[in-house]
Write a structure and sequence with these properties.
The protein is of the alpha/beta class. Among the domains are: 93 residues, Luciferase, Domain 3 (Luciferase, domain 3, Roll), CATH 2.30.38.10; 138 residues, ANL, C-terminal domain (GMP Synthetase, Chain A, domain 3, 2-Layer Sandwich), CATH 3.30.300.30. The protein is built from 19 helices and 29 strands. Helix 11 crosses helix 13 and helix 18 packs across helix 19.
Amino acid sequence: MTEHLGLVPHLVEREDRDGAVYLRSHHALGAAARSTGVWLDRWAARAPERIFLAERSGPGWRTVSYGEAQARVRRAAAGLLDRGVDGPILILSGNSVDHALLTLAAQYVGLVTVPVAEQYSLIPAAHARLRHVVDLVRPALVYAEDAVAYADAIEHAGCPALTSLATLERDGDVAAAHAAVGPDTVAKLLLTSGSTSDPKAVETTHGMMTVNQVQIAACLPFLSARPPVLVDWLPWNHVFGGSHNFNIVLAHGGTLYIDDGKPLPARFPRTVENLALVSGTVSFNVPVGFAQLVKAMEADDALRRAYFRDLDMIFYAGASLPQEVWAKLERMALDTSGRMPLITTSWGLTETAPAALLQHQPAQGAGIVGVPLPGVEVKLLDVGDGRMDVRVRGPNIFDRYHRNAEKTTEAFDSEGFFVTGDAMRLVDAADMAQGLAFDGRLSEDFKLSSGTWVQAANLRLEVLGLLGALAQDVVICGHGRDALGMLIVPGAAASGTPDDGALRCDQAAEIRERLEAHLASTTGSARRVTRALVLAEPPDMGAGEVTAKGNLNFAKLRARRAALVERLYDDADAAVILPTPDMH
């Protein structure tokens, strides 16, 4: 049903050598633009009147065409050069037209931007994270669109501030500076999630980003067949929203409608409103966002028709898409438009710009992340039980972390492959074209006292599915112990009475019942969670328990709440939820 998209087949070459499996795409890698500014100039010449960027303004949209964007980018670039900016530009505020134009202006003349999560600035408890970033990148200029809301954060930056792009713009000749920008020029510093340590800054070059778009386009030809249209909320301080999605639009002369909603209860109605106004050709989201969208479309025929009218691709990332949501999207697409968009995902990290693997043929269900993109080499090392340690190298892979030589050295093996820390499984060991399935983070695995390895990332997803609305998240515990336990971050359906950091949970009986059902159908100590405790205090971003992406920093949370981990293993503690004795 996706024949209209002209999808490129998976063609994968395999080599077995020195105990490792090496995979490469058989498809050739084409030439890439030398810089992102080349893309802007190209589309300003070819389609100057076409809308490039749009953001909400009253009942409609404020739009900027490619011709207008090019003119403003050149004027802002002239302003940056006139000011003598000679270091990184720290961007504090979120997605907006002016944020985009400032980013492109800096890149146009070889300057570096550092977009950071808005939470670092707007949540006082997170200012320690902001100070870490400032100390790391040493900005020369800070940008925030609201001088009042960001006043404290601007002060923390300790450098000149810019709160209006218009005040920066001026006439000037930027041709020489633009001509000097090449593939090796650093375009931005992107912060890693900081889920296992303080965030590192990845030096992201123009070449990493432009090559990655050539790789993606080689496998998804419909992106080049008609300019893509996106209605997208994903934040630009993350590589997914800021490099992958933004550059798909710019590289192909598409249009980006900046969605000022989010998949949060208070913000999702705005996303629904925006999607009803604009029919996109590509839809990017996280699984929880698609789940909320499906629910909204079930109750709104007009929204469903607008969403599927021009849709070529549904792309999920961040976690596996629940099969129930996948099936509903398929059924709605066929019932509404009579044709099937490609439902897919890819795999990559901040260090890979980001796409390294891509499922560019229809997959039978979620979790399959695809095959190597053209130019990417994948190295797989067997770590037991069918799991493979995945490593990558190629022209879209980073060279270094900013001002962190030690972590840079640790990041690469003796062959120059980036050691990602992720695990994969071959979908079919006899057919490489079936691709790879994501199988958790190796760094989250640990051993019980018996020596049994626990695949904590996979177990966490399994338990979250089991607990549903009772748990917003869970932290798997048990390193060096004889049994598995977990700390539960309560969800919307959970309540109770605080008990010294834990919660006497009103839903303890239901949690216990679900755990017992899981235990009854589970064998092996590596998957049997035999005790649980509900957290009374939410994870603290300021203390590093929550990353900029909103993920839990599991190691930090366990360390800060070590006393609660100890309580997990005290059968006499009234706050600990235990299965019945015969389940141990």
